[in-house]
Amino acid sequence: MRHLTSEPLLGIHVMQHIAYYRVSTTDQSIEAQRGALAKDGVTFDMEFRDEGVSGSVLAAHRQGFGELLKFVRKGDTLYVYAVDRLGRDALDVQGTVHALLKKGVSVHVHGLGLIAAGVGELIVAVLAQVATMERNRIIERTQAGRVAAREHLERTGKTHKGKLSLGRPHEVDPGAVAAWRKANPEASHVTASKHFNVSLSTVKRYSAALASMK
């Protein structure tokens, strides 16, 4: 939660413009969503975020969104970059929007504008369903690609894209990371990521993998 304007008078709830951002991994940044919402010409009083939280998690079960639900009051307006920020699937999105509107909170989706009760909710539900279908298609294509790569690797020693192994190539040698951290036991993951010029999640992934092999 981030306060962007001065605190309202004690006991008085001033109608506020509130932004919510979500990204699925810690490698991603909310800045693209923040920049897009800034183009709507609104000055936000509060910001809530969920970083490194999968879209498969129910909206109400996300820490940031849960705090948002407790904070918003009648007359507030919630701004999001896309409808899929508001829930796990079409049903969750529809339920979340309905609950907010019933509470007297307006919902503004970038590119769509304010969502009205009734027809507006239906449009959001349809868009959320389309987003869910597209996400499922991406998962199916990814799984099909992995199967093809594994079969090709077993037959020829290489994947169908010419790689010698499955998965992403290592950005740095995991052994080098392990050796450096062993020589520098006081060094944090953040320090290691800066030393090797790789992401924090990469260092954590290598460390976890090497720890499991001990």
Which structural traits does this protein have?
single chain; 214 residues; alpha/beta; Rossmann fold; 2 domains; six-stranded mixed sheet; 6 strands; globular
Question: Could you say how many structural domains there are in total?
Answer: 2
Strand order of the largest sheet: 1-3-2-4-5-6
> Which residues form runs of ≥5 with pLDDT under 50?
none
Query: What do we call the CATH topology of the largest domain?
Result: Rossmann fold
Structural class: alpha/beta
Order of helices and strands: EEHEHEHEEHHHH
Tertiary shape? globular
Q: Which range best describes the helical content: under 10%, 10-25%, 25-40%, 40-55%, 55-70% or over 70%? A: 40-55%
The biggest beta sheet is recorded as: 6 strands, mixed
Q: What gap, in angstroms, lies between the N and C termini?
A: 39 Å
User: What is the number of E strands?
Assistant: 6
* Spatial extent as radius of gyration: 22 Å
The number of helical segments is: 7
Level-1 CATH class name of the largest domain: Alpha Beta
* Strand percentage: 5-15%
In round numbers, the mean pLDDT is: 79
Query: What is the CATH architecture descriptor of the largest domain?
Result: 3-Layer(aba) Sandwich
CATH superfamily of the largest domain: Resolvase, N-terminal catalytic domain
Structural write-up:
- The two termini are 39 Å apart.
- α3 links the parallel β4 and β5.
- 23% of the residues are buried.
- This protein has a six-stranded mixed beta sheet, sandwiched between helices.
- It has two domains: 2-115, Rossmann fold (3-Layer(aba) Sandwich), CATH 3.40.50; 174-212.
- It is built from seven helices and six strands; from the N terminus they run ββαβαβαββαααα.
- The chain has 214 residues and is α/β, with parallel strands linked by helices.
- The longest helix is centred in the middle third of the chain and has 38 residues, at 119-156.
- The chain has helices spanning 31-38, 63-71, 90-102, 119-156, 174-183, 189-196, 200-212, and strands spanning 2-3, 17-23, 46-51, 77-80, 106-109, 113-114.
- It is globular and about 60 Å long.
- α5 crosses α7 (200-212).
- The mean pLDDT is 79.
